[in-house]
Amino acid sequence: MEKNTTDKRIHILDAAEQLFAEKGFDGTSVRDIAGQANVNLAMISYYFGSKEKLLVSLIEHRSGYTRGILEELSKDESLSPFDKIDRLVDLYVDKILNNSRFHCIVTTHLPTMQSEEIKDMMTSIKIGNLEQIKKIILDGQKKKVFRKVDIELTVASVMGTITQVTSSKALYHKIFNIEKNIDELYNKKMIPKLKSHLKQMLKAHLDIKNQE
Amino acid sequence: MEKNTTDKRIHILDAAEQLFAEKGFDGTSVRDIAGQANVNLAMISYYFGSKEKLLVSLIEHRSGYTRGILEELSKDESLSPFDKIDRLVDLYVDKILNNSRFHCIVTTHLPTMQSEEIKDMMTSIKIGNLEQIKKIILDGQKKKVFRKVDIELTVASVMGTITQVTSSKALYHKIFNIEKNIDELYNKKMIPKLKSHLKQMLKAHLDIKNQE
DNA sequence: AATAATAAATTAAACGTTTGTTTAAAACAA
DNA sequence: TTGTTTTAAACAAACGTTTAATTTATTATT
């Protein structure tokens, strides 16, 4: 049985993540969270201070490790530019689809939040990651492997595609005839589809042989 | 001076649209809306019945006309498959960026809503539109102009890219050095960029000459 | 055209809930 | 005994909605 402080904190964070993703930050009451986590209402203020600070804690709890992986990838000289793109696709598809609830909160509910602090935090993380990806594409162009493209919008297409598939699950459940409400099954079917689509599209889009 | 019933209804709808997009459905109170629209609080219940029915009215107010245009486009025999794709890109980029507030509500706040009725309504609209686009791509494939691609995910990439650019305005303001908070300027700069990026990418992605 | 009768629009105030947060006492651990 | 964790109860504020009274607009009658 989990009885120590850390476990209870994580219990609350998990409950909050699920409910924020399903019903939004404003659509979720602290009583909902307490009920879902099976803790007393007052424990949330006790541990996190407030509902908003709980969200900040959740972001800190889930964020962070992507940056390091990206830097490593962009520096790696043993990989060809196209290999790097493939790795990039694998990385983001896996990361986002396996953390779809958190990603849903970040993409759909954070922009609406009042707190400028939280929004600025996320913006700078995104810009940092974009810079790393930019390096990869610029390197491919310098090596005459990639053609001239709008780098920022190319990255927007990758992120946008994944986000689209993640945040419109109900739609793609119907389209691809996947049994409803089984996340694991959805991921098992969609992750390979999504990876191969993005790789195929980026291959054609970036290949210097397709220069107009 | 506008004094009749219809104008006041539209006033309220506009105010609601703005606030729902900025702060979300649950983050917006009917008092906020009344204040923004400069009407008495009770007028919202009087005209629309409830806050949720106000949202339904907003959706009905803004939805609809896309379907017809898409059907026409897919039937048009005077256009080549690639011309149709270009028209499609123009249509969606213009439509979404010029109605970004409403689009923001649809993509980020509707999926969170409790009301299954509203969600089903939007899902069936999306599936209907997807079917029309599917026809266009299938036709291009039959004519040996397009190669084999995942059609659903290709459409997801188009929608996802546009949504990404629309719903992360703050980010792209910084990235492209656009003066803050001027929607008109943002659209003027982004619409052509977005259109040419999508056309270029889809050209490479769909072209049968790029078959692996 | 003026008046009376009816309907529609608008208002301020109040309704009962639910909200996030705090309190002060109790239970538990060190 | 000390300090930490947990609890039920209470708090004021904000929420969506309704009420009942009043003003404005429309229609019918003289």
Keyphrases for this structure?
homodimer; 212 residues; mainly alpha
Number of strands of chain A: 0
Largest sheet, strands/sense/barrel of chain A: none
DSSP helix fraction of chain A: over 70%
Question: What are the low-pLDDT stretches of chain A, counting only 5+ consecutive residues below 50?
Answer: none
Percent in strands of chain A: under 5%
Average per-residue pLDDT of chain A, rounded, comes to 91
Which class do the helix and strand fractions of chain A yield? mainly alpha
The helix tally of chain A amounts to 11
Name the largest protein-protein interface in this structure.
Answer: A-B, 52 and 52 residues
Overall radius of gyration of chain A? 20 Å
How far apart, in Å, are the first and last alpha carbons of chain A? 64 Å
Give me the oligomer status.
homodimer
